[in-house]
Write a structure and sequence with these properties.
four-stranded antiparallel sheet; MetI-like fold; 57% helix; 385 residues; alpha+beta
Amino acid sequence: MLKSFSLEPSRIALNLAVLFIITLWTLPTAGLLISSLRDKNDIAASGWWTALASADRNQVGRMKGKADQVEKDGKFVISGNLFEGQDAVSGKVSAFGSKVQAPEANAAGSTVDLEGGQTLNVNVDGSYVLTSPTAFDNERGSRVFFISSQPPRFTTENYETVLFSEGIGRSFVNSLTVTIPATIIPILIAAFAAYALAWMKLPFRGLIIAIIVGLLVVPLQMSLIPLLKLYNAAGTFMGVPSKTYLGIWLAHTGFGLPFAIYLLRSYIAGLPKDLIESAQIDGANDFKIFRRIVLPLTFPALASFAIFQFLWVWNDLLVAIVFLGSGPDQLVLTGKLNALLGSRGGNWEILTASAFVTIIVPLTVFFSLQRYFVRGLLAGSVKGG
């Protein structure tokens, strides 16, 4: 009993620490989800943590013009509601003014004197009454600056803009066409290379492994232009057109191979040596050992790399634009969503909805392979090689 009681505080502390980390990790995602369901004006006016509270907003309304005036008791009257024609839903007016510098000059419900003997009354519900001893001659009507309290509003307009924009379906297919082969090809090549570097006697094997480790730190941006020039020169020599899927598949394969070989080689080198030697004694060649023994046992590592490679290629924009192009029929999903933001990024409220649209497929891949993920990453590091 004493032992159990002594362990309880540390267990509570551990649980609290885990809960804190989970909350800290998921909080930005929750904020992104809430923002994606908010009105674009609310996103610009306040943070996502205020989504359930009413927000004060500076607004401008235009009253009716002379065509709507009526004469009553010897005075000319124009009446209406400030929320007419507003994009936002109707709220409650807390203050109003006739100048943009002082929208809070007068409390809602009060009547103020204006120039020329005019009076203006604005109520909490946005209704107003403008009176004048002489006829109004303003065609459009005067503006009123006011502060309104807007109730929380949730909408799917951002998702509708993203999902139903022109060309979004084509860009989705383009992303799949790029990502699936660019994930499978490096896995196939790296699996053979990793087995050779782990179990076959090759000249300069240590040097090759050192070069592969060194390639892990080569920045993508530094090698992108030389690789593009090399590809274009080879394409011109062989008569292969540029800006094709073949080019981007080869590019992603080249960028992904160092990490794939390093990860798979670490895992395969940790397999039991007796298992490989027994197969060799039974007369199995290297290809048969690889296909029947190594490949099935290496599936967790293959799945781990597949998740990394799929996520990287799916979210890529730079390599896709350089090697595939930015035409309407060539844009991948990230490129299309980036185009929706506008040339100056003015439609940035679409970014929140775009983020969740793009993670649907990666999440599906991750959760289908997640049971192999940690096992594949850790196995190569805890076994000897």
